């Protein structure tokens, strides 16, 4: 009987993580969030137009030193989890920009609401089978990575797009499993190891 209850709760938390991630992908309904500043492709220099090229930042880290086997295994699991969830955090960021640009072409709120409902349905159909396979640890990491990519928490994203009630509902739902949509990325503190991994993944070193 206990085993049956555990399985139900496991399925329940996967549905919750799926919903949280997909809801965060929804387009903007009000004002756009503050994204990273964009850099123009061309600049004017001495009355001449010069094309610019944006180069990736390069980070140099010392070799990772582990005090024991368990610590090394934890680090390897973190690498696995980052590589699995980072693409979805970047998807959220790209989806927000694309959706906002499209929403601004719609004539009124009614058309925007209809588009959001259609998009929500399509996102669930496409990504639910994938995101439902995330573990609870990976789901928590995804929430923080969304904050890293979008410069704001999943809670603020949902509240801005779909209202305070739905944001509160999904945050309460996440709280059942010890997660919070208000969790922020802490690259200089508890997320320092994950930040290092993210940067190395982005540079193609992992």
Helix/strand class: mainly alpha
How many strand segments?
Answer: 2
Q: What is the element string, with H for helices and E for strands?
A: HEEHHHHHH
Oligomer state of the chains in this structure: single chain
Radius of gyration: 20 Å
Largest sheet entry: 2 strands, antiparallel
**Which whole number gives the mean pLDDT?**
75
- The helical percent reads 55-70%
What topology, given as strand order, has the largest sheet?
Answer: 1-2
Low-confidence stretches: 1-16, 26-39
Q: State the distance separating the first and last CA atoms.
A: 43 Å
How many domains is the backbone divided into? 1
Give the DSSP E fraction (strand runs of 2 or more residues): under 5%
The total count of helices amounts to 7
Identify the overall geometry. flat
Describe the structure.
The chain has one domain. The chain has seven helices and two strands. The protein has helices spanning 2-24, 69-103, 109-131, 136-150, 154-162, 164-175, 192-202; strands at residues 42-45, 48-51.
Q: Which key terms come to mind for this protein?
A:
flat; disordered N terminus; 206 residues; mainly alpha; 62% helix; 2 strands; 4% strand
Note the topology:
Layout: H1 2-24, E1 42-45, E2 48-51, H2 69-103, H3 109-131, H4 136-150, H5 154-162, H6 164-175, H7 192-202
Antiparallel strand pairs: 1-2
Helix pairs in contact: 1-3, 1-4, 1-5, 1-6, 2-4, 2-7, 5-6
Short description:
This protein has 206 residues and is mostly helical. Helices cover 62% and strands 4% of the residues.
